[in-house]
Amino acid sequence: MTTNKQVLEWIEEMKGLCKPDSIHWCDGSIEEKGRLEQEAISKGELVELNQEKLPGCFYHRTAINDVARTEHLTFICTTNKDDAGPNNNWMSPEDGYKKAGEIFSGSMKGRTMYALPFSMGPVGSPFSKIGVQLTDSRYVVLSMRIMTRMGKTVTAELDKGTDFTRCLHSIADLNADRRLILHFPQDNTIWSVGSGYGGNALLGKKCLSLRLASYLAKNEGWMAEHMLIMGVERPNGFVDYIAAAFPSACGKTNMAMLIPPNGLRHKGYRIWTIGDDIAWMRVDSDGTLWAVNPENGYFGVAPGINSKTNPNAVATVKRGTIYTNVVLKPNKTVWWEGGDGPIPNKGIDWQGKQWKPGMLDTDGNYINGAHPNSRFTAPVINCPSISHRIEQHHGVPISAIIFGGRRAHLAPLVYESFNWQHGVFVGAIMSSEMTAAQQGTMGKVRRDPMAMLPFCGYNMADYFGHWLKMGKAMTKPPLIFNVNWFRTDENNSFLWPGFRENLRVLEWIIDRCYDKAEAVKTPIGFVPATESIDMTGLNIDAKAMKQLLDVNPNDWLDELKGISEFFCQFGDRLPEEIWDEYTALEGRLQATGV
Ligand code: GTP
Ligand code: SPV
Ligand code: MN
User: Residue limits of the Phosphoenolpyruvate carboxykinase C-terminal P-loop domain (predicted)?
Assistant: First the structure.
């Protein structure tokens, strides 16, 4: 246990509410891990996988109604509703504690309450934040042990009297009608009940490292973003670091672990992975932006991962990994749609049912064996491309920030903003077709500024203001770009092969940072000049390339309607600069004479 009085008092209080049979303070040791795994196996919460083929790996299935983040049950509980803003569900703190308190009440009867001390960011770094999560789920403890720095070193920090985020979690009865994910930024507290799904239950991740952290970051003058961080090393050994924000299931993990395409191999690039989901960034004494990945593991989408699309991820999940909602094969290994190897001729699907390929549902659609949002939880250190700078307390300097989303028609493959203020606007007008990572309508376009719509813990108008302010605090801010790997042709086929071929676009982006690549000015920003993207070894015909880089003023004028509607929700609170950029874009589009 810790000697930190505040921690002890809070645990006592939560014990009174949840009424567990016992409390276990986690030390993060290997013995503790082994014990929890054995208990989880005996209770049917985990299946031990084939230890020869997948050493240290386990299989888990969530409840069928609990397979993705539930944004409609996620709330920001601030005294003033306006502080949460129109982008968030809101509840008053009193209501929040009351409603969730009723569900938490006695929810841990017959169970152990695990108290796990964790650090987001390297323990002791000026970036880092400490949390304590109380939970009745062994799956959550074992997953948090992978996703965060957890155990003795953190207890030692707490013993010094360090402040911490209070994270209370219970799976309760896993009833979707009794599920709430509540954030109390003013109290540095998170209460999540009724779900065992990653994004709802691993409270260090989205709840602490984005929703609460974004709020703290605004007050403390730094940034908490839904971004991957990667390094691109040139043959001379110089590494440029890039941070990229794509909405959920839009390619962050894949890009963070990229392997150079064959066609560019002769150029000698090497990619270093720092993070695949979250970046904490601050301005250092040199006037540039530095970033750390607060996490210690990957909670990545399984479907689509194979040796061709993402060999580094394939290697990462070969040991010490927990798989959730994928197909369990008879030989106790796993499979998912778009995975390696032959399709297994039978297995148990994510719902726990017997499955074989080709099975159809009542509408005649193929039944997936793995849930489209099935995931793996794996330690960062497993990744062959992991950067040794992941542990550095200072982080890495960021050369370019990239925004991106899934847009079948509108956005070109890549464009560069004119300056920081315009770049903030480019982030603010981001939109993407929805995926399986959140419950909702798949494929529907929604506005998702900076990929933070579900994760910004306060009024997004103030968030845009904070971005503008951060730009002014830097003497050399990163250049800001937008990418779209998902543009399609007349037959709905992707025009761009994506994955490792994306390095060609990253090369253009980095060259732009050094004024080395050619670009053409369009109303929305700079797009690559013909032939300024190196296409060696990749066959894309001229027509497709033209389509990929096309900026259609009519389509953009149409898009402005949705953008202004979105901005209008914020009323007077939206920074003037954002409207200035809007008006300027409209003017540039109209000037094309369409
Ligand atoms: P979260 O973990 O939800 O935040 O997702 P993420 O942004 O890390 O997305 P991830 O890399 O897991 O990719 C999600 C899906 O996008 C997978 O199905 C991939 O196959 C697909 N994908 C990733 N990169 C590309 C790409 O360059 N082109 C295409 N067409 N699909 C891609
Ligand atoms: C996302 O949905 O953006 C994820 C997975 O990274 S979750 O942790 O569920 O939020
Ligand atoms: Mn994410």
Answer: 222-586
